[in-house]
Amino acid sequence: MDKNLYDLMDWAAIEEITYSECDRPKITLGSHRVEDGFLVQTFIPHAKEVELLIDGNKNPIPMQCMDEVGFFACFVGRKQEFKYKYIVKYDNDVEQTVSDPYSFDSIYSEEDLSKFSAGINYEIYEKMGAKPMTLSGVQGVNFSVWAPEAMRVSVVGDFNLWDGRRHQMNRLGDFGVFEIFIPDVCVGDLYKFEVKNKKGEPMLKSDPYAFYSELRPNTASVVVDISDFEWSDDDWMKNREDIQSTRVNESAAMNIYELHLGSWIRKEMQYDENGEEVNGSVFYNYREIAHKLAVYVKKMNYTHVEIMPIMEHPLDASWGYQVTGYYSPTSRYGTPQDFMYFMNYMHKKGIGVILDWVPAHFPRDLHGLGCFDGSHLYEHADPRQGAHPHWGTLIYNYARPQVSNFLISNALFWAEKYHVDGIRMDAVASMLYLDYGKNNGEWVANIYGGNENLDAIEFLKHLNSIYKKRNPSSLLIAEESTAWPKISGDLNDGGLGFDYKWNMGWMNDFLEFMKLDPYFRSGDYNALTFSLFYHYSENFILVLSHDEVVHGKATLAGKMPGATQEEKFANLRVAYGYMMTHPGKKLLFMGQEFGQMNEWNEDKSLEWDLLDYDIHSKMQKYSKALNKLYVDYPALYKLDYDPAGFEWINCTSKDESMVTFIRKTEKEEDTLVVVCNFTPVVYEKEIGVPYKGTYTEIFNSDDKKFGGSGVGNKRAKKSVKKKVDGRDNSLKIKVPPMAITIFKWAE
């Protein structure tokens, strides 16, 4: 061993590296100026020989093995810095020429890191994670991760035999970010971060910022470049502000079809003569689903789809609500480019896409965010603050700026990289209340002694303000199940800044009413009318969602009373009709549009074969016609959140379980009169009407083509000057049984 070389070396630092406990290997490894030249050092386990090849030189310089575990060094007597590579011969006699990972500059600026630490680096995903790039003329991948309490972090993958000693990352200042550029790593390579905690225990973690992930049950992250997709949805994006208008008195139609991509439709599994799977997956690719779904959604006259979470998740049965890959479209259905194709195609067909998003909690899977760097990094350390006891998941520490930044930049990522038209935030109530789902002693009060989660409130306000500033035409929707005020209120007026809130109260009240035998509905009549007392306090979406058709709750058709299928479906038709004419945007879960009878099962396709039966095909035809009615008549959506758009005619017909009301716009000629009868009785009825003139029945859920009995008003009705329901003009109409009828006014 060369004594002069030996004396130049920092052996304490070298021991840190060889024991893979170094968080700043770049201080030692690579080329460093010393007296009269440069000291070049490298650590390559399993290397038998290493030579230094300086650019422009034909003859490489042999490097001395200073430690038999693979530490090599040499002295180069040059005055100027130089570029170089290593020629490595391994103990299996394989030879490689490689660039030195520790010879490249960081891609982070001081401003990048300072803004991340302050929680305001909204494009942090552009640098964090695995980024294919060319540095100093060398192709490779730049890896970085936030792990402030780690003793050491390494990148491991097929490219380095999953050996955590090989590519130990460099800690950047005091920001807790680790980084390394690894030459010759390619798109498609698998990787993880090996995090050694302060106890010296190594943990394998998936990349929190990975853009793509391995197909479950495998959990590695995948290097991918998402910059090469060519979008062609310019017309949609340019006009989206009008398509999804939330402007006062110009509210746009929004009728949402909620679905789970993995069970909306599936392939039939095929097997060979040996019983082996032939087609390998029951799932359609994002591109295949796009074509099938767009045709169906357009045919059924929906305006939007809402997709249950497509972010990577380990368990199919979680439906995507326990996310491990927040930046990664699940590989169950294809690649990130495939999902971009899905979004692009839906837009070109005039269909908006809303994504479910889960900022409230995350699962405990060992490869995920939990105890990421050996400390409680993303979650609270105190389980009273950091865990949901009945979900078994962990709660984000929203007070930590880098955690807030991770989530805010993720919401922006889906809007700006994938062109999503809206984000529906799951379980917002669990974020707002510290005692959500907890008993006394299981939660910690805020600084004022209350149960409000002040950090989560601030996080939501921060997120919503930045999201709407950068993406004003993309929607923010809250699934919030309590009476928390101003969910959709203006941020400058104490609100949380969402565009819409799911109306869970209406859903619960209305379904309880509909489940009653018609004979007993008069006793719960207020459930029909109560929603209008609070409707204008928020911008509500009326929802009949997936949560109502699982876990023993029965499908919507299954909830309906009736001794026969025909009676059940008559109830379902009037229920959908009332929902569609009630103020507020609409959402219906897949399968309910044709009256699926079995509860939703994420492991199976919808029961499309039911459409071979007349009763189900007519139910689908009814849903299609009702949806068309909704989008064709502005009175049903334009003034959804203006009291001027709705007016009761009669909301006191308790004994008949009947309501009549008006939907309107600022134009009188758009006026519609709606009559809902929730009993199986035909009535001859006088109803008050808003104007003198002619009223034509334009829709009747009891029409025979929908499976009804055919009772209705085939001829236009002229109003008479007779005071009914407190109005000067009235009509005498036939009210069909268990049905909704809608009349259009003309002067």
TrEMBL record:
Main enzyme class: transferase
GO cellular component: cytosol
GO terms assigned for molecular function: 1,4-alpha-glucan branching enzyme activity; cation binding; hydrolase activity, hydrolyzing O-glycosyl compounds
EC number per UniProt: 2.4.1.18
Coiled coil: none
Catalytic activity: Transfers a segment of a (1->4)-alpha-D-glucan chain to a primary hydroxy group in a similar glucan chain
Catalytic center residues: 426 (nucleophile), 479 (proton donor)
GO biological process, one term: glycogen biosynthetic process
Pathway linked to the protein: Glycan biosynthesis; glycogen biosynthesis
InterPro entries xref list: A-amylase/branching_C (IPR006048), Branching_enzy (IPR037439), GH (IPR017853), GH13_cat_dom (IPR006047), GlgB (IPR006407), GlgB_N (IPR054169), GlgB_N_E_set_prok (IPR044143), Glyco_hydro_13_N (IPR004193)
Keywords assigned by UniProt, alphabetized: Carbohydrate metabolism, Glycogen biosynthesis, Glycogen metabolism, Glycosyltransferase, Transferase
Keyword Acetylation: no
Function: Catalyzes the formation of the alpha-1,6-glucosidic linkages in glycogen by scission of a 1,4-alpha-linked oligosaccharide from growing alpha-1,4-glucan chains and the subsequent attachment of the oligosaccharide to the alpha-1,6 position.
Record note on quaternary structure: Monomer.
Family: Belongs to the glycosyl hydrolase 13 family. GlgB subfamily.
Name assigned to this protein: 1,4-alpha-glucan branching enzyme GlgB
Biological source species: Lachnoanaerobaculum umeaense
Gene designation: glgB
